Predict the structure.
Amino acid sequence: MAAATDELSLVFQALADPTRRAILSRLHAGPTTVGELAEPFAMSRPAISQHLKVLERAGLIERTATAQWRTCTLRTEPLDEASAWVERHRGEWNERFDLLDEHLRSMKEQS
Amino acid sequence: MAAATDELSLVFQALADPTRRAILSRLHAGPTTVGELAEPFAMSRPAISQHLKVLERAGLIERTATAQWRTCTLRTEPLDEASAWVERHRGEWNERFDLLDEHLRSMKEQS
DNA sequence: CCACTGCGTAAGCAACTCCTTAATTAATGA
DNA sequence: TCATTAATTAAGGAGTTGCTTACGCAGTGG
């Protein structure tokens, strides 16, 4: 059901597949055509096309058509958002320990 | 198909749902019973149970049974792994800009 | 012992995912 | 013009997800 169409969900969902993560890693070397991207995978071309669609929907890549080649380019802005969420949740947890620490210290001072 | 059972995929998939992210946020306030967790959501109790199962499978929570209450506790280790992936991919991109910067500077010096 | 509480599992359903093969579109070049 | 190359769309199938309602199972307290 649901399909969770909010931006953050789309990004995390896009990252929740090894093939798509590998594609993103590959794109760090620079813009690449679909055929070049598909080459290392034991998977049909349309399958890759569909993975790219998921990545595009999440805003993680851009596709521009020059001649009969589609060039894929990486976009990292959505990763910033995802990073912010994860870091915030790791951070808050540490804050709790910090608060506990502080609490224990103030208790010690009172005794 | 596929189901992508590697650890990182499980974590990202767990995070790819607003309800589950809200549950994790809620758990930052400390360990909580399932009923307490379910209360703010317009959703049946079993639905929450199933979300918790997904979070547990990803290693993001632990469930311990004391009396007839199941207490859910946050675990952030898997978030470290997810964070590492995201940061690495953001970082590499920035490196590329750094290299471009350096390149442009050296070109400027030559002219 | 028995009803009640807290939570899980079971079964079922619509929607989605991830792959496939076959057909289609679009640009290149002999 | 027509075959070739690059990629997408279409259609379909097996499996998964996210919810529901109904039921089951421990632990509590009368």
